[in-house]
Amino acid sequence: MEDYTFEDYKSLVEKHLMDFIPDVDHKSITLYEAMKYSLTAGGKRIRPVLLLAACDFCGGKVEDALPYACAIEYIHTYSLIHDDLPCMDDDDLRRGMPTNHKVYGEAMAVLAGDGLQSAAYEAMNRDMILYFDNAVALKKRINASYEITKGAGCRGIVAGQVADMEAMDRSSSKEMLDYIHITKTSALIVAAVRAGAHLGNPDDEMLDNLTVFAENLGLAFQIRDDILDVEGLEEEMGKKAGMDLINKKVTYPALYGLEESRKWLETLTNTAIDALGQYYDNAEVFTKLARQLAIRGN
Ligand code: GRG
């Protein structure tokens, strides 16, 4: 296992982020620029880092996981572009920059999101083709791709977006709130961790423990996001605050108040950390990240 920190993994992601974006014909240069604009606008890179760290933790080669790490960041970035559109959350600011549609127009922003999504599948498929004659290596990659595809799909972030939209203006139950958080946010975080693990050699117990970690981290991440929307600073967050209230979103603070939300965030963070307790220092990158995310300002 490499002795990498969060920043080491993040630097690797940044260095290779554009490597798997297909070369486009010069006639499609606006599409390429719109995709690159949002991809390189910043972002914490939590999902690709988790994927690389999980691969490393399970004894895989970090370099082998790069196409999948970049793919999950492409999918995440596409979802942010689409989420910001006027027909969805109608946001002007993302990652500290004007949103994609504010710069390139609505139609191009839709297409930039579409382009990023298909680039993700192209990156993973191209990698899998290289291992056609190696059943063991191919199986790991198919498993990783399956996890990412599932998290990105109609049981993952797309379902979450639908539930998030439809729950607006409704008096929502805790069950609905949990469903939104699990699909909208946790699904892709779980996908990142499980995909990375599959690229290594996890035993069943390791995979189960990493999954419990990711599920709890994902929920904690969204509760922190909900809290930040109430009390965060726009300059620090790189996006507008108070949008959940304006859009009448179903959030943890809206249903339970800030105090209760903070307590639940702490409980989920501790549960995530405990899930990896038996691995001591080997799991440090995960446990440190969980603690940092619980107090993040953006
Ligand atoms: C399929 C259109 C579509 C949307 C899917 C992901 C999503 C649903 C909507 C984006 C908005 C949102 C609040 C999602 C919840 C997950 C979340 C907190 C995303 C922001 O992730 P960060 O903080 O963003 O990791 P950066 O910019 O750091 O990458």
Detail the topology: elements first, then pairings:
Blueprint: H1 6-16, H2 29-39, H3 46-57, H4 66-83, E1 93-94, E2 97-98, H5 100-104, H6 106-129, H7 135-152, H8 157-166, H9 174-198, H10 204-231, H11 234-237, H12 243-246, H13 252-275, H14 284-294
Antiparallel strand pairs: 1-2
Helix pairs in contact: 1-3, 2-6, 3-4, 3-9, 4-6, 4-7, 4-9, 6-7, 7-9, 8-9, 9-10, 10-13, 13-14
The chain binds geranylgeranyl diphosphate (GRG).
How would you portray this structure in words?
It is globular, with a radius of gyration of 19 Å. It has a two-stranded antiparallel sheet. Helix content is 69%, strand content 1%. The chain contains 14 helices and two strands, in the order ααααββαααααααααα. The longest helix is centred in the C-terminal third of the chain and has 28 residues, at 204-231. The protein starts with 5 loop residues before the first helix and ends with a helix. Bound molecules: geranylgeranyl diphosphate. The site of geranylgeranyl diphosphate has 17 residues, from helix 4, helix 8, helix 9 and helix 10. Geranylgeranyl diphosphate binds next to helix 4, helix 8, helix 9 and helix 10.
Distance between the termini: 30 Å
Small ligands present? geranylgeranyl diphosphate
Percent range for β-strand residues:
under 5%
Q: Which regions are unreliable across 5 or more consecutive residues at pLDDT < 50?
A: none
Q: Structural class of the secondary structure composition?
A: mainly alpha
Count of alpha and pi helical runs: 14
Radius of gyration: 19 Å
Largest beta sheet: strand ordering:
1-2
Q: How would you sum up the major sheet?
A: 2 strands, antiparallel
Mean pLDDT rating = 95
Helix fraction, binned, reads 55-70%
Tell the overall outline. globular
Helix/strand order: HHHHEEHHHHHHHHHH
Structure summary, number of beta strands: 2
